[in-house]
Amino acid sequence: MEISFTVNGTSQSVEVADENTPLLWVIRDVLDLKGTKFGCGKAACGACTLLVDGEAVRSCSYPVKFAIGKKITTIEGLGTQDNPHPVQQAWIDEVVPQCGYCQPGFMMATAALLNKVPNPTDDDIDENIINICRCGTYYRMRKAIHKAAKLRAESEMNISEKV
Amino acid sequence: MAEEDNHSKQVSRRKFLVRGGLGTIGVLAIGTYIFRNNIRRELLRMVNTLEMPYADNTDKPMIWFEVTSENTILLHSPKVEMGQGTFTGIAQMAADELSVSMDQIYVVHAASATGNVDSVATGGSTSIASLWQPLRELAALLREMLLEEAARKMNVAVNQLTIEDGVISGGGKSLTYAQTTEGVEEWKVPDKPVLKNLKEYKYVGKPIARVDLKAKVYGDPIFGMDVQMPGMLYGAVVRPTKIGASFISADTTDAENMPGVVKIISEDDFVGVVAHSMIEAENAKEAIKVTWEISNEINTGAIIEMMTVGNGKSTVIQKSGEALEVEDDFVSLEFRSPIGAHAQIEPNGVVASVEGDSAIIKISTQVIGITRKEVAKRLGFDVEKVNVVPTYLGGGFGRRLHTPHAVQAAVMSKAVGKPVKYFFTRKEEFQHDMFRPPTHHVVKGKLSTEGWLTDLEHHFVSGDVGNNSALIPGFLPPIIGADIGAIRGGFIQYTKVPNYRSVYWHVDLPFATSWWRSLGLLANTFAMESFIDEMALKAGKDAVDFRLQQIGDEVIDVRLKNVIKAAAEKANYSEEITNGRAMGFAASIDAGTPCAQVAEVSIVDNEIVVHKVTVSLDPGLAVNPDQIRAQCEGCVIMGLSAVLYEQMFIENGELLPTIYGPYQMALMKNAPKEIDVILLQGKDTPGAVGEPPLGPIGAAIANAVRRLTGERLAELPLKLPKTT
Questions:
Q1: CB B397 to CB A142 under 8 A?
Q2: Pick the CATH number of B2-217 from 3.40.50.720, 3.30.365.10, 3.30.565.10, 3.20.20.70
Q3: CA torsion angle for B374, B376, B379, B385 (degrees, to 10)?
């Protein structure tokens, strides 16, 4: 069957044999967007986290049929080198990644958190950022999340000043 | 050969190649003649220090550097990047010796076809240390060759020339490196390159941002899992769920008719499926009915019984003075560590493309040379016909020192005539890991009337770490007599104690165990530093002073004492409990790097909470202090995860659990909110970094808990007794 949705601002239609195919594999293997990672296939690690209509979703366990007509954002659509998302800028400033494999999932989860809680406390972070990083970058990640909240607030202030 | 040993001779073009085309002007430097003696020296060092050396593997030219037409330098790394930051460190070293900016240097994984891959492994915390001298020498060699050539081209004396950011200037003229390489037929190779003075370095010693930072923040497809090849199909291999299961037969009838299946591959040692998608391959795999012969269906209890000091074969790895006798009045404590999983987030995987008599293997591997040899052997190919192209690793931790999946993918690719991508499911990762072996320790000690140790003994049993690994040359274990991985961190570091010894016991386990970041260090230091803490309490002495007074006076001892003092001072170490928080102290030496840690711990709802860890590390010269800090932070958190939460168990012959969650690991909420890292420099060359900070964390936490609760927790993972 054909499934249509928007990925990183572009309308996409894909043909899938099974509408229960996890969204992850459509993103990775059909659309060839490799930034969203496979880690466990059971929604247990969060490496596959992306945004569906702004909500963090673990795409390895999210049937593609649920994404019909929705807006999907992957790490490739979060920001660009010329115009990084505040989360990406904060990750760069704090030099967060080590091996880097789990990082897109964490950045997407953080972007979703900041949409809901623009200035998260440590407790907010602990409750919401529940992906797994084996290299143990949590310490820098926490600093980066606070920094991203600050950068995001600043950029919104700049936008409202311009308006 | 004689000619090669003579440095003053011009190196023939067989040894120094110039490549053109494809936008690359291309200077390809090689280092064979520099390194031949290094290998022997390094092997000796390996035996002495239990480190893994850097070793080149062929007499053929090895590409190290390329000068591109954009006047940038491509550095082909013999080591892989798995998060440890090696690419950044070697880029800093090369940039400084080559007089180029960090922006002008790009590090890529060397493919085995070019020869410049480490034939041993990336591991053992030795990448920077082992490349420190040879890489800088090669970079200096290239710089001097470019200078000579530029002097010739510009007709200006070498001593009139200066270099900045890859531009050679003098006598009112200038040439970029790229321009200098144009049209060169024969290069003059300097006698012996002269390294710059450390003070001239602009990048070494500075907290330069990781060279792979942006690729990792913008989600670039850099990992083994991200590899695509034209016409690529997907493979899956049937694996047993029980340990010790041997393959009898497989009924593939149903699987053959499953959607998307291209071919079922039945080999003597495995059955695989190739299909058009990963999901189709997995579905077909599930439909294959395999008959396994199950040899036993053991449980964790049986493993614990096996892993008990006194079982198996013992080797005294260290001794001084007399052994304790049964009738002596001594303290004896037992400690245990469980089976640990690597649990790296990127599953093991590979893309193999076999065409005719050659193969391309794209893979996250720590053992490029071994992967290559194993594939060549299985396919009956000449080793030269197998090109292993390493990718960035989504975590290594020792797991990728074994790559039989590369062989399986190559066999499947050959069978279907197309590239095949194949990777483990998470369940397969957990059940077919090469686990950290469980251990058991009996630590004994006796105090003098003044409260100092007169005797200290560490008796420990472990499954294999290095033994039976393709990494360890067969001649080594008999020489050393013990598993060089299992004994890491197992030595007595309090050598002022009159009588001490360390005895290693080896037991064969019915499942595969192997290298797990820091090897024996995590468990050995947990046991010994917990014991030392208990003895300090018994002696009524300060935990820091008790340690300092009983460490010897060799260079490494002095460095250890210095990190201990620095950690205690920075953390304001105190034996008092303040606001419900206690401090725990521990220290260790691993691969020549001493580390001390102070953990600040409280108990909240009967759970151990680690608030702050102070790390004091002496890695020698710090090539990149920020990345060393990152490794310390990572080791603290990975170590905390292992000592507070992680354990595999065996139920009716099945290794469990098979998924994150039930295999509990540290999350954001469990990580200390403060990690304070102090770096000391007790020697003028770089030392080991990636593993040594994993040593003290277990005991540091347990020692804090001891002060809070009075309980000596002696088993990993650390669990408080249930309250009623």
A1: no
A2: 3.30.365.10
A3: 160
